[in-house]
């Protein structure tokens, strides 16, 4: 099988030489543990990456790419950013989406706490 060599680009580029279009969908937010959120990322509406985790580490937030466990117990990333610049762009996009989703969720929780709980009569009784 023959492989082709491709010249690496110094920065991630989109269709017209622009920066890579990164769309983020936060799938879940966790309030406990090191996993802050799980997400899906769509790159230039051409490639979707699912099960990306936003982790909280000793040095701050970082991306954890989808991985699998090998036969000897090691974990290997399924896909990963090639350049540090692109990893930074992905991390910034995911962190921004996470903060926005967290703000929305906290607003909903505050509304629920402020609104009165409707009184429901037990079956067979009226209020």
From TrEMBL:
GO biological process: division septum assembly; sporulation resulting in formation of a cellular spore
Key words, A-Z: Cell cycle, Cell division, Septation
InterPro entries (UniProt xref): SpoVG, SpoVG_sf
Domain of life: Bacteria
Keyword Cell cycle applies: yes
Name of the molecule in the record: Stage V sporulation protein G
Organism: Enterocloster bolteae 90A9
